[in-house]
Structure formats: C-alpha cells, structure tokens
TrEMBL record:
Superkingdom assignment: Eukaryota
Presence of keyword Transmembrane helix: yes
Protein name per Swiss-Prot or TrEMBL: UPF0183 protein
Coiled-coil annotated residue ranges, if any: none
Length: 308
C-alpha cells in the first residue's frame, strides 16, 4: 500500500492513516508497541520498521541520514528539529518461519498463501457466445436453457437465491410482445465462490442469462464474488481458446474488447447510488449475445451473456 493518506487502517480499536490521522513513525510506534530496530537503505533513503506480518517504510531526508547508525536508528525515530517521518508504504505479508520475511529481515520473498483444498479460484470458465459455459476443472457443459436441477447436479447448491423483483430494462425491450410491466418473476442463482450469477426465467425455469464477475476493486460488488476466470470465445470453438486474437478474459481492457468486437455505440449508465458506491457509475455496452459493464478505468466489471 503506497498512498497511506488515502487509506485508513484499524488496529484493535484505534485508527491510523488517512487524511485525519497521519501514520507518522511516532504514531505507528505508539499504536503497535515496541519492536526490534529496523533497517536503513542508504541508497533509497528508506527506513523500514518491522512487526510480525507487517512493515512500515519511512523516507529519511538526506540531511538527517546521520540519524541512522549502522543501518539502525533509535526508537522512536525523531529528527533534530522535532519532526517525525510519515509512512510512505505499508506491506502485509506471511510472517511464517522460513519465509525470509519478518522482524529485522529484508522482504526478498513474500509468496501468496496457498489456496484451500478443492478451491476453484483458478478454474477457467470458457464461454461460447449464445451457446454455453464450459467449466474446465469439473468438465461441466451448461447451455442456455438449462434447468435449476441441472445446476444443482453439475455445480452443486448455489450460495444464494435472489428473486428479481423489478426488471428495469423492460422499457428498452421494444420487440417484446408481453405486457409492459416492471414486475418480474425471474430469479438468480448466486455462486459467489465461482464469480457467477445465473438468471432463470420465472415461468419456464430455464437459464436466460449468465453474469460473470471480475471482482476488480472500485466496483460496488467488489469482494462479494471471487473472480470468474472466464475466457469468452468470440469466433471458433473451445479448442481455439488459446487464440489470443479472438478471446476476451477478465484482464482484457475495454479498448481491446472494441478491437475484437467492433464499436457498439453509446453506453447505458449503470449506477448503484453515490451513497453506496463512492467510485460512481459504470458504463454498459451491448453487443449481440453479450453486455459488458465497464468501469471508468477501462476494466471490465461484469459480463452478461444471453441469447439474442
């Protein structure tokens, strides 16, 4: 974490960081308590203070480099003029024995924690537009029109079931012959641990939409779903999945999507309300068989697949 002035952290019952509570050396030491002397990098002018699983980096002005003796400094660190440095970086890491990261050590190795047994976090989900999803680990093929029983059999019990009370897009369905009403009997199956929502028709009880989540920070649904590692096949078949010219993944930015699918015109504005989402609205672009919700930074937030 680099911009500590924009991030407020909580330790026990106390807050530190953010615009109102600067994470100074004195404040950090007072909150987290005594620890061993840190290390001083003369070349970068950075003093690092370590706690188990946590470290703070403080910039040391060149005129005060003499305050650090033999790579260490007195605690708490204060400059001769009475000021104290402010944290420029906070690192969180695995403090287990043998990781070469911890109190008084350099952070030359900070591996990601292992995934739980049976985790599907890295599973690729191949999507053929207008046809089906293919789950590469379990080998399940789930087409449009599948029933709830198919999902219970293939993917197991959903994490949640959500009734879609209002269809806000019905006004745009000019070709829909049904009576114009916003009331909706459709319902979702939520698979949060797969980054996936499935919308069923409330009358036919058949799949009508798949919603794939990228779980990028800055979106209202961040951390509600894990990332769905989808691979959307634009042309061709599943064996062509490694053809990078015709596939879209969570890391594909919007400009690249337009190069693959072409320009689709103006976007609809999607907002969760300024009080619940400080990052503001997103943009929804529609294509045949797919709609892309795109954040202001150009990253895909969700992809909704349907048959048109």
């Amino acid at each position: 974490m680099f911009d500590i002035k924009r991030l407020q952290m909580r330790y026990a019952t106390s807050l530190i960081g953010g615009p109102s509570t600067l994470a100074t050396f004195v404040a950090v030491y007072a909150l987290f308590g005594p620890t061993y002397p840190g290390t001083y990098d003369k070349d970068r002018g950075i003093y690092a203070l370590f706690y188990p699983g946590l470290s703070f980096a403080f910039p040391i002005p060149s005129q005060y480099s003499d305050c650090c003796h033999d790579g260490e400094a007195e605690l708490p660190l204060e400059f001769p003029d009475g000021t104290t440095p402010v944290t420029c970086r906070v690192s969180i890491y695995d403090s287990s024995t043998g990781k070469k990261v911890g109190v008084g050590s350099l952070m030359d190795k900070a591996p990601a924690p292992p995934l739980p047994t049976g985790s599907l976090y890295m599973e690729e989900v191949h999507a053929k537009l207008g046809e089906e999803l293919f789950f590469t680990v379990g080998g399940q093929h789930i087409p449009f029109g599948a029933s709830p029983q198919d999902f219970w059999s293939e993917l197991g019990r959903p994490c949640g079931i959500h009734q879609k009370q209002v269809d806000q897009m019905v006004i745009h369905s000019a070709s829909d012959p049904r009576p114009r009403t916003t009331l909706c009997a459709d319902y979702f199956y939520n698979y949060f641990t797969r980054g996936l929502d499935i919308l069923f028709d409330g009358q036919a009880h058949k799949v009508k939409k798949f919603v794939l989540h990228t779980n990028y920070p800055g979106h209202a649904d961040f951390n509600s779903f894990i990332k769905c590692n989808f691979v959307i096949i634009v042309w061709g078949s599943f064996p062509d999945v490694n053809n990078y010219k015709n596939r879209i993944t969570p890391s594909t930015k919007w400009e690249q999507v337009k190069e693959i699918l072409g320009d689709c015109g103006r976007a609809a504005i999607q907002t969760q309300g300024s009080t619940s989402n400080p990052f503001g609205s997103t943009f929804v672009y529609g294509y045949q068989n797919a709609a892309f919700e795109v954040m202001k930074n150009g990253y895909i937030a969700t992809v909704t697949l349907f048959q048109s």
